[in-house]
Amino acid sequence: MEFTEDQILRYSRHIILPEVGGDGQEKLLNAKVVLVGAGGLGSPVGYYLAAAGVGTIGVIDNDRVEMSNLQRQIAHNTKRLGVLKADSAKETYETLNHDVTVVTHKERLTSANIKDIIKDYDIVVDGSDNFPTRYLVNDACVMLKKTLISAAVFRFEGQLMSIYPGDGPCYRCLFEVPPPAGMVPSCQEAGILGAVTGVVGTLQATEVVKAILGIGVPLKGKLLLWNALDMSFRTVKVPRNRECPVCGEHPTIKELIDYEQFCSMSH
Amino acid sequence: MGDDIKADKTIDIRGQVCPYTFVRSKLAIEKMNVGEVLEIILDHKPAVENVPKSMENEGQKVMKVEQTGEKEWHIIVRKDKEKKKS
């Protein structure tokens, strides 16, 4: 492709990198990435992907911007209170970079709609805040063989794992089933330091960009754990589970599961 | 110019400054085949050192750097390395 004058300027610091170059930038412009959630994690992921010129960014979220979100969810702002987060994120990202098209999916992910929503994207980014969605996204990505960059945050901690279905473990290889309802605090009970979501979301965005460019070593078969108070990073090896119910040799999960329907987690 | 080296492609980036001198040179050489020769005409003095250095860092062969005017230089680079396709 021929870059426009603006694109040469905008992406010059990418193009200079030997690992990126003009052809790498072209891959970014052609990439399609979908964000599950435009909250604490999704906000910075989308922001950096938009800045990087990822051409198509899907945003799945059916919540509206609330005052309590603004301590960490940097895609939104005070003027957008009450606006759907997907619309707010679209405005933010497309204003940052006109090369980016943000596709909004203003619905809650379920077993019925998830495959249709994610099927046209290359990479799925999970920044969801609840276990039913996390397992639904994992299972759908395994079934559709979509690269999944999964992250989570809690208080002063974050974790990150890149899932390449068929090549390395999935989320269920690590934690086979969701914790029972009541064992985990709901999002409304959990505190989170705003900047922690920024760090983990930015790590997540970095894994996405690496995956698009095919550079470096992906965080595959490994779980990265970060503690902000100790400022310590740890990487734990995660083996693939041959008996994993979804990605193992004898899968027992062949249809997607809507966990909330029978474990009624509080929101 | 010329002598015995014939350029397959010439870019005139007079008026451009760092880092865009290298950015534009790199974009040009990316589109060429290994063995082909790129001629870069520029007038930004720091780029006369920076562009050849950066080209060599990326594995390309700088064949000649020549001052052709009070504020004009020609840099001749042969493409030796294709970026690894992922």
Can you give keywords for this protein?
heterodimer, A: 267 residues, alpha/beta, Rossmann fold, eight-stranded mixed β-sheet, 10 helices, 34% helix, disordered C terminus, B: alpha+beta, four-stranded mixed β-sheet, 4 strands, 28% helix
Biggest beta sheet summary of chain A: 8 strands, mixed
- Quickly count the domains of chain B: 1
Low-confidence stretches of chain B: none
Proportion in helices of chain B:
25-40%
Which H/E pattern describes the elements of chain A? HHHEHEHEHEHEEHHEEH
Structural description of this entry:
- The complex is a heterodimer of chains A (about 270) and B (about 90).
- By secondary structure, chain A is of the alpha/beta class.
- Chain A contains ten helices and eight strands.
- An eight-stranded mixed beta sheet of chain A has the order 3-2-1-4-5-6-7-8, with helices on both faces.
- Chain B contains two helices and four strands.
- A four-stranded mixed beta sheet of chain B has the order 1-2-4-3, with helices on one face.
- In chain B, helix 1 (about 20-30) crosses helix 2.
- The chains are: A alpha/beta (about 270), B alpha+beta (about 90).
- The interface of A and B includes residues 8, 9 and 23 of A.
